[in-house]
Amino acid sequence: MHRSFQKLFPLSVLLLGLLFTSCSSSSTLQHPTTSATLWAQNAAEYKALTTSVYNTALSNLGMAIEDSYWTAYPKQEDQKMRKLPAAVILDVDETVLDNSPFQARMIKQKSSFDPEQWNDWVMEAKANPIAGAVEFTQRAADHGVAVFYLTNRETKVEEGTRQNLKKLGFPLSENQDRILSNNERDNWTSAKTERRAYVAKNYRIIMIFGDDLNDFVPAKGISQQERSELVENNSSKWGKFWYVLPNPSYGSWENALYNFDDSLSPTQIDSARKARLNTKKN
Ligand SMILES: [Mg+2]
Q1: 100 vs 106: CA distance, rounded Å
Q2: C-alpha 16 – ligand 1 centre gap (Å)
Q3: CA distances from 74 to 5, 71, 151, 162, 241 (A)
Q4: Where does the record locate the signal sequence feature (predicted)?
């Protein structure tokens, strides 16, 4: 989970905010994810949107299983792939599990992202499902499709992830570990490329689900322009092989706003973000 945006909220910014607040009652410093978190937790439209995504996948499921040439992972060789059992790959955070309560805690505590607190939240196993995800994965499993969860959560908290998914009714295999965590094996990097290849060795990957471009293709560190081109170049895949869930709170889209430059100060990041606001005036 990449959460550099939280650099925007260090103590110095808070103190500055308090100073302004004391000068003017109308000036309140807002945590950068307040609106996004309120939306995720309250907008009925969010539920409608994610349900639409999973419903679309459901309506394609039969065809995807039947058609042995159908693949969401074009690197597979036709003849070999056709004999393999079908699988779907889903990212976990903001794809099948809703972590907005963790965001809400950070906002209320006026704190920035802390990996230990994040792991504690994962081990609480209290995340709700993203609307539509349980129904889709259960239906896929009922049809004999292997359901893999490919997550950048750490391996040491995989048990928390498993408990959370299990509690909510997400299908899990008793014979095989289908939660593929970050660094669980030597070459399994956060880029997820190796883990997709691992699944592709024994399965025909019929659908991929995620909230971040990196859940589908390697997109680390590339510019906004390149990100946009990647989406256009793969336009025939969206809604058929690849399914995107909305995440306005965090993700590589946000880091791309300041070109993934973690050396920038919070003020510089804030300026870089604002420079991306398009007013059509210049
Ligand atoms: Mg995610």
Answers
A1: 10
A2: 32
A3: 33, 6, 21, 29, 10
A4: 1-26
> Which CATH number fits the domain that encloses residue 90?
3.40.50.1000
Q: Is 277 left (phi over 0), alpha (psi -120 to 50) or beta?
A: beta
Domain membership of residue 9 (yes or no) is: no
Among 52-66, 80-94, 147-161, 258-272, name the one with the lowest average pLDDT.
258-272
CA 79 to ligand 1 centroid distance, Å: 32
138, β-bridge pairs = none
Residue 1: inside a domain: no
Q: Do the Cβ atoms of 70 and 64 come closer than 8 Å?
A: yes
Buried/exposed code over 53-88 (b: 16+ C-beta within 10 A; e: otherwise)? bbebbeebbeebbeeeebbbbeebeeeebeebebbb
pLDDT recorded at residue 112: 83
Tell me, in angstroms, the distance from the centre of ligand 1 to residue 25's CA: 37
Distance from the alpha carbon of residue 69 to the mean position of ligand 1, in angstroms: 28
**Distance of CA 180 from the midpoint of ligand 1 (Å):** 13
Domain that holds residue 89: 30-275
CA–centroid distance, 189 to ligand 1, in Å, is 15
| Domain assignment present for 2 | no
Question: Does any domain span residue 35?
Answer: yes
pTM: 0.90
Total domains in the chain come to: 1
Residue 209 · residue 89 · CB < 8 Å: yes
Please compute the mean of the pLDDT values over residues 88-111 and round it to a whole number.
97
Ligand 1 centroid vs 252 CA: distance in angstroms?
A: 10
Output DSSP code: residue 148.
Answer: E
Helices (H) and strands (E) in the chain, counts: 12, 7
Q: pLDDT tens digits for 183-196? A: 999 999 888 999 99
